[in-house]
Amino acid sequence: MEGGSPDQGSVGSGTKRSSASSGSRPRNRKEFLYRFVDSGMLTAKLEDWFESISNKSEPKKPAFDVPFELIELQKFDYALEGISFQQVIRMPNAVYASTSDAVEATAYLAIEDFLHAGVKGLWEAFWSQDEPMPFSVACLYDENLKFYQAEKAVADGKLGGLCATGILLTNPRHPHGKWDQILELALLRPDIRNFAMDSDRQLPLSVLGEALFYALRVLLSRSLSRLNYSQSSNSVFILLVDSQYGGVVKVEGDVNKLVFDVNNVYECAAEWIIKHSRIAVSSVDRIWNKLGNANWGDIGALQVLFATFHCIMQFAGFPKHSVEDLAADHGPRLQARRAERQLGDARVNGNGLFRFQQRSVSPEIVEVQDDSVKIETEQLMKLEVGSVLWLEDSNWQKGYQINQVLNNSEHPYYIASPVEDPQKRLFLYVGSHPSQLEPAWEDMNLWYQVQRQTKILTIMKQKGLSSKYLPQLSASGRIIHPGQCQRPSSGGNCDHPWCGTPILVTSPVGETVSQLISEARFGMEEAVRCCHDCLSALSTAASAGIRHGDIRPENVVCVRSAVRQPYFVLIGWGRAILEDRDRPAMNLHFSSTYALQEGKLCSASDAESLVYMLYISCGGVLPDLDSVEGALQWRETSWSRRLIQQKLGDASTVLKAFADYVDSLCGTPYPMDYDIWLRRLRRNINEDDHGKEIDTSG
């Protein structure tokens, strides 16, 4: 985009600011933004960098991460099942196949309508059906960087100068929009579809550079704004669309690290992008069909809607109804549909496998009575005490006999023994059958419990993390089902209900803290020891950059032995955080404040979740919570009134002190000092272990 300097009113920095903003740095930043108007010059400064990262990227592997994982989009898709979106103005097919201004004008009108339908549907579904939507949609005119309704821009002869469409905060005082109030920008570009046809190709710098230019302008404007953003304002989403396809670019970074040299605007901007920004680029997928209707449930539109969802959170805060809350309704809807279609038992068994019904019919066309149709229910494959499972790894096969069936309030898991060593006890987790194209919501939890936890424990093993307070990976692989496997030579699985189902086997085995609490067997000594052991596990994992993200009573087990004191092991690592794009579990009772607000973990988040678990174990009462707002309010009240510290202080002064420490650290970038608290907790543990030396690893 090339254009003249924007007028002062069109830039988010045009208003007067406080005295703190009157120094040279804010003035330089404002002047920097005023001069930052040419996307082509920025793109030219990024050529060497772009060529370098393109050459370094592996074949068939994109140079940039994706903004959303497929599992996140699937969860979001479930949440949107009951939500209606309607684009009234159809997108003209093949906009650029015609030179008609009318066709291009209709395309801008259609994009406006698409964005309006999306943001309106999301606002009413997640935030409020009663309050009016505080956002509007308009097109950006490149000569003055102001926003106009597409219809008015076309009528005023500005069609040729339109360069983007944006979702903005509604502001009657600034009808042409302010840059600091932009939620999201969509760029209409004719060549996007070429990258949908060939998934190995990445966006060219000409397209990506323009997206980076607009993203940085928005971030700079926000940094000069007086708006109080509900969420972090350090990230922005840019949409790239044509008449059928679209993708998402996410740019994140702290613009305070940008050098505001007004004489070298584009060099400084390029340096910031290269050194201080994180860029994520989605795949390019179809959004509109040939009739111009949006495919709201497909990947292309879902990516755009999910980006818009995150943008709304930046301005409006966390929604009243979370994605997890709405997605959880998928299971009941699935069961209702099965009952509606009279498919028999609408329940899903503990392994995520449905009962099947099969009609026995003659190959000839014959007249039959209703009662002559025989319904045969396939024998349900389920695990019971005494069942033996055979696991296939790449090099060997191993059998496990089920000794006990357990349940962690979400899905069953098992205590099993190797066939060759019946005295040994192990946890065994069975995942969902991979052939389920439309898995129930519960199966996503199974994916985290089995497949992803297998990945995390494997990484721990590869990195040499060793602690008795961490679970150990004993085995993983896939079930070998009874009978002959008819697996096709091309790969995949046969038709047997068990074929290809993943298994994870871990050690050691113990009772969960939730069970101990329910049976009143979790006292002061157990609380102090549990705090020490869990902190030790977190410390060991943190040394490799791994955080847990899902600490709750069901994910801590007490291991007992005849020759030593009981100890606690932190299990359930399926939601662990390895990198910034990973998201922790969202639990209204046990998630940290930062996780509920930002969807991420700070350094003290796991410790905060541990404090909540210890709070209820020491007799604290958790209220009934049905929304994120309610959960955050409870946390604010409990910490400010020191209710949590007082309850923990009734059990142990060291736990009270630890809670105070966690409270001071929550939401800050400062790291946890594990060592000092492990030493303090260790001094408060009763070390009478019949002469045995206590393992104080960690």
From TrEMBL:
Alphabetical list of PANTHER family matching this protein: KINASE FAMILY PROTEIN, PROTEIN KINASE SUPERFAMILY PROTEIN
Where does this protein have compositionally biased stretches of type Low complexity? 13-25
Name assigned to this protein: Protein kinase domain-containing protein
Please tell me the species this chain comes from.
Prunus persica
The superkingdom of the source organism is Eukaryota
Q: Where is this region: Disordered?
A: 1-26
Return the InterPro entries for the record. Kinase-like_dom_sf
Under Gene3D superfamilies, the record lists: Transferase(Phosphotransferase) domain 1 (1.10.510.10)
Residue ranges annotated as transmembrane are none
